[in-house]
Amino acid sequence: MGMDGELVWKGNMLFEGVCDITGHKVLFDAHPQSGGNDIAATPMEHLLLAVAACTAMDVVAILRKMKQELTAYRIEIHGERHPEHPRRFTQVTITHYLSGNNLDPKAVEKAVKLSDEKYCSASATLRMPTEVRSEFVIE
To answer: Could you tell me the residue range of the domain that residue 32 belongs to?
Structure first.
């Protein structure tokens, strides 16, 4: 199953991206010291938050199926990056904070584990080797 996206330069280091599945637009920028305007998240911030969002959506869906009544949920995510280029993530820590009516700790543990080990595509992409190929066309 494929997914396609397009990224269009808007000047300086500002880019607007859109994927074919939903058509929602996302802005990317850089910090001023890197030539950006600092008006949108950086690509690495998007990547880190994508992992948090992916696992959060999994956990909510799994807890709903388990008939757990969730009333509040947030994630804190911390990424450590390699000091030299490429400054990839070397470690990511995800901390889930959940509140609810009679939340079963075993159900929460199972939901988090299922997301970590089976369902979260974003964290799986960070964990597993992914082939990335680049091409170019001069128009």
So the answer is: 1-40
